[in-house]
Design a protein that fits this description.
Structural class: alpha/beta
Number of domains: 2
Radius of gyration: 21 Å
CATH topology of the largest domain: Aspartate Aminotransferase, domain 2
Number of helices: 11
Largest sheet: 7 strands, mixed
Distance between the termini: 43 Å
Strand order of the largest sheet: 1-7-6-5-4-2-3
Oligomer: single chain
Amino acid sequence: MILERDSRYSDGTVLGSMCTEPHPVARRVFREALHVNLGDPYLFPNAAEAERECVRWMARVLLDHPAPEEAVGAIVSGGTEANVLAAYAAREATGGREIIVPETRHFSFEKAARMLRMRLVEAPVDEEYRVDVDAVQDLITRDTALIVGIVGTTETGSVDDVEALSDVAEDRGIPLHVDAAFGGFVAPFLRRYRDLPRFGFDLEGVTSVTVDPHKMGLVPPPAGGIIFRDGELPREIEVHAPYLSGGGSRQFTIVGTRPGAPVLALYANILTLGEEGYERIALACYRETLRVVDAAKDLGLEPAVDPPHLNLANVLLNGRDAAERLLEEAERHGWKVSISSNPLGVRIVMMPHLTADRVTEFLRLVARVVRECGG
């Protein structure tokens, strides 16, 4: 079979992915909706309404929108498209050409800057890899179009102080975009049990948020999400597609033809799991992450962030030699791992397909490599 050599989440060897096995209900609905094109809402009005309901649900449950019916959004090809759309809308609304991002930003912002002829201005981070808000304030110029905060950085899972960034953005009249591609389906639920900053639309400065259902939303890819506070920013980039069925439609996404299957899969998950189900999953993954961090410390390894902000543990490595050696050893033993560069470490994303017991087997390999490389 063509997939014979491809990875499977179910065997517990994929340690660095922010995707996982789709929920069984989502998988079934996805298959039934393969023909649905959300780019032509006249032909698929029920799917289009399901997308609006998903956007409202995420705005209300995940993003604390005071008026979720005003939120405007779309399920797009991934977090990259969502982040590009946020930058595009901000550029058109402000006329600015600079995006202030944490140095921990996702590579999608580099793509956005290149595509939109904008410039990235990187702000430093603290010892837990959270953006320095004072530095952000100092970097603002008359050409600043957008400020970005992150909820779940790719390399350490860190959560920026979006509350403080919102105050800065509101005071200076600059749009604030939150990249919660990973943390959007986790942080709202963990915040009920541990100290994490708010990051949603209850903060006046937040104008747009990226949330990816194909990560902890347990939806098959592609399913990124872009949600705007209201219609003001997306109208800046909206175009009319006149030839579509029923007299055409208006759209602000980059992709015209959009698969409806991920949207209906998300809708099915929301109906099946609901707020309580998603909370159970997020808490279970975070508890396993805490066990992984404890196991790492018991083996003499150092976590980059302790305790971790979300369900991602990063274990520090003692040099490039150790990193290269670990990649070789992991490949030989069948582990699928990801090495981070800032900090130099191995990323372990505790998705639902992983357990701390399984990951501890891998950590023993990490500890051996670190020792042999002088740690």
